[in-house]
Write a structure and sequence with these properties.
single chain, alpha/beta, five-stranded mixed sheet, two-stranded antiparallel ribbon, 7 strands, binds zinc ion
Length: about 200
Amino acid sequence: MLRIIFVAILSLSCVSCPSHRNNSFFSNKQQKIYKTSHCDPQKSFPQMVVVPFFKRATQIVPDCNTYPKHKTALAMMIFYHHWYDWFGDEDLLVKKSLEKVMIEWGLEKKTLKRGYSLKGKLKKHITVVGMTKSNSFIWVWKGYFNKISESSLMHELVHVALRAKYGHGDRDHEGSKYDGWTVDHTAMILEAKETLRSFDI
Ligand SMILES: [Zn+2]
């Protein structure tokens, strides 16, 4: 298991090759806050916890199990690794938006008056498992089996990345009303989720 993690971290750090030091998630410059910010099961919930290695990224958790900060940080690294692989990030807009994202984890799904399906169909009174509320604020249902891979975190982070790149998150996904989201984005999400599963998170 340790060897798998080591190999994975090595390959993830290809994102941060020496010639692109500004692109590194592993600077740990704010390590003091990373060490002191943690979930306390004795205190009341929800609690806000700083996500290590992502500057000002935070998460609001409904309990300490959803999710430990190292799992969220690893999931975000995996997201960026796959995003970079598929779409690049020359101007670092996506990286910068990840560094200020706030993730609110929810224990229950929500119902919306209207929303778009993945294929771009407008539907009324739909049950949703995630929402991108602003450029840097997303709400994500905890997902199945207490696994980030079975939540919509990767999906919502694509909306965040698209907002950073195009100024809007393309709410109709693969539909043609708004530009941005393509079948490649859907494929990237599936690939990233598989990586999350190989880490069992
Ligand atoms: Zn969506």
